[in-house]
């Protein structure tokens, strides 16, 4: 009898271990930079959210991959990325050599970054985070999804209304049936003026190393790695290694080693990233980096630099590689191309109007081995990432981030950057929250509601570098910019180009007239009647406000004169004949006729 009871008890326990089911509104798979931000935003939008990550840390490339000198989004501290950046700076305070200038590159120790992200997630209501929890499978469940994962050693079923694939390699969407393209796109396929011939060649990955200076007398030489070949790293003898170390300098006498050329870049193919090949391939990449460290210590005399022990791996290298490229979704609702970035206002589609994230990371070109045709990028402007790039056409309520987004090879070279992906993740979290809250699917997205939610949480949808988030009219300018009524101006700065709003510049009639006519039927009558000059005046603006809002002109003028400085805090005098500035125009346009309220579709076209 006792044996039978014990047997029944064992069966019952097995049923619990292998039969647990969790229900959630949003499930984020992958604790990458984008995944962490997506989970935070989903929960802050008051939807029940769960994040599962197969490794021990949050942050993906930023932390587990060791990419902890971050230059991307230096001028765009958007939302959760800006929050993370601020917390890193507060943690380190002002130690010698730690630059806290507004747009300085962010530098931190990987485990510190992971700890800060964990601390943020621990304080977010509605959010459950499970580390060391690998994804197993996914299948459709009505309008939502059923996911199997290993959580705390038990096989667990998770039923979610919306799933976000925030893995570095797009494993979840691939399991659900999404197909990927790898490497270069041909010009005929994308229409990009800078595109080359189609090729499966992908950007190299890097297995980064974090070194610590243990003092001049220390000898931290690693064991000679298997297959070590000094010739692979010989070009370093012609390099300024001290300068290379300085570029990767971190707090507390540490260095991030992410070197091009004969450094620790390692060629990768689509076949290498297949789940069945990944472990063996990653082992080779790790050995290549260990060989670089051994060469640095034995051939170049840096025995005092040893691997930092912040990573608990046997070799003390990061948990994951820094992947620059993997498979890109072939069936996104839209595909972001290079021409959408260089000429956002001149395209038939107006994807900038649908942006759910911003970036200013420059595109990289990292290819070792046989040469590939490098792209002659012109000064690269800051950009917006459209909503449709994270939405899959044939897989409702499954969103993708990281390298799986629907972008071209040339665009992935900048959007893959971890700080940009943190912004993308926040956009994905808001999108998932929209679907879960309104009990709908990704076939019925409302761009403006999603963007409005992001603005509520201090995220940027327009990459205007000259309008700080502390500006009291930051949101108004973002919204008017997203309508296309006032366009950003690209200003080259070396290899990059900032996008400026130029708030003190004057409003050209030729800029605003087409968009006003596109949005407001009465605008045709007004322009025919008023015939404003080349530059819009304050009087023109008030007249247009009166026309669209049906407000008595005299009443509007009297009220505006009183509110000009008292309410709107304008520095200039109220003068109907004076040309209106872009700042004044944006604030009043947003207040009175609100072009942002006009519905746009997934391509950015106005919807009647």
UniProtKB/TrEMBL annotation:
Q: GO molecular function of the protein, one example?
A: oxidoreductase activity
The reply on keyword Isomerase is: no
Presence of the UniProt keyword Cell membrane in the record: no
Task: Write the record's keywords in alphabetical order, separated by commas.
Answer: 4Fe-4S, Iron, Iron-sulfur, Metal-binding, Oxidoreductase
What protein is this chain from?
FAD dependent oxidoreductase
């Amino acid at each position: 009898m006792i044996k039978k009871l014990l047997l029944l008890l064992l069966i019952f326990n097995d049923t619990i271990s292998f039969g647990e089911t969790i229900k959630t509104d949003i499930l984020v798979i992958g604790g990458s930079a984008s995944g962490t931000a997506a989970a935070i935003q989903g929960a802050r939008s008051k939807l029940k959210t769960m994040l599962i990550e197969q490794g021990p840390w949050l942050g993906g490339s930023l932390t587990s991959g060791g990419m902890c000198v971050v230059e991307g989004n230096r001028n765009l501290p958007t939302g959760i990325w800006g929050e993370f950046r601020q917390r890193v700076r507060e943690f380190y305070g002002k130690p010698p050599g730690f630059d806290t200038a507004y747009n300085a590159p962010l530098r931190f120790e990987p485990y510190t970054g992971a700890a800060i992200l964990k601390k943020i997630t621990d304080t977010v209501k509605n959010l459950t985070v499970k580390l060391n929890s690998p994804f197993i499978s996914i299948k459709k469940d009505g309008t939502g999804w059923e996911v199997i994962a290993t959580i705390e050693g038990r096989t667990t079923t998770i039923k979610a209304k919306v799933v976000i694939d925030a893995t570095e390699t797009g494993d979840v969407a691939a399991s659900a049936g999404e197909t990927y393209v790898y490497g270069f796109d041909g010009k005929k396929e994308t229409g990009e003026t800078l595109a080359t011939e189609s090729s499966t060649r992908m950007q190299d990955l890097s297995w980064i190393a974090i070194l610590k200076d243990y003092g001049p007398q220390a000898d931290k030489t690693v064991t000679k790695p298997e297959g070590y070949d000094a010739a692979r790293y010989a070009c370093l003898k012609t390099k300024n290694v001290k300068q290379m170390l300085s570029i990767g300098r971190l707090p507390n006498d540490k260095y991030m080693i992410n070197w091009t050329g004969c450094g620790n870049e390692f060629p990768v193919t689509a076949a290498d990233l297949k789940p069945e090949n990944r472990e063996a391939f990653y082992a080779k990449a790790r050995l290549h980096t260990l060989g670089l460290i051994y060469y640095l210590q034995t051939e170049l005399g840096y025995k005092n630099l040893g691997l930092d022990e912040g990573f608990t791996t046997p070799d003390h290298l990061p948990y994951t590689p820094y992947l620059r490229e993997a498979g890109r979704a072939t069936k996104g609702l839209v595909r972001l191309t290079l021409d959408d970035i260089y000429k956002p206002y001149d395209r038939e589609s107006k994807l900038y109007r649908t942006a759910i994230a911003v970036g200013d990371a420059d595109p990289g070109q990292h290819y070792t081995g046989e040469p590939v045709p490098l792209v002659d990028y012109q000064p690269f402007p800051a950009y917006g990432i459209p909503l449709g790039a994270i939405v899959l056409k044939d897989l409702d309520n499954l969103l993708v981030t990281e390298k799986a987004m629907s972008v071209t090879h040339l665009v992935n070279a900048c959007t893959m950057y971890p700080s940009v992906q943190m912004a993308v993740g926040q956009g994905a979290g808001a999108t998932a929250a929209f679907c879960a809250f309104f009990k709908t699917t990704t076939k019925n997205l409302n761009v403006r509601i999603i963007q409005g939610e992001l603005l509520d949480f201090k995220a940027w949808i327009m990459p205007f570098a000259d309008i700080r988030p502390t500006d009291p009219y930051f949101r108004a300018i973002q919204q008017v910019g997203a309508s296309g009524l006032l366009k950003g101006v690209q200003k080259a700065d070396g290899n990059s180009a900032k996008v400026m709003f130029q708030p003190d510049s004057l409003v050209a009639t030729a800029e605003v007239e087409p968009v006003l006519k596109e949005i407001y039927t009465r605008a045709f009558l007004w322009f025919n009647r008023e015939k404003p000059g080349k530059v819009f005046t304050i009087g023109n603006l008030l007249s247009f406000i009166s026309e669209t809002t049906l407000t008595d002109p005299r009443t509007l003028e009297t009220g505006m004169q009183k509110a000009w400085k008292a309410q709107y805090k304008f520095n200039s005098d109220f003068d109907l004949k004076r040309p209106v500035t872009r700042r004044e125009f944006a604030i009043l346009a947003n207040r009175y006729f609100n072009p942002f309220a006009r519905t746009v579709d997934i391509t950015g076209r106005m919807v009647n």
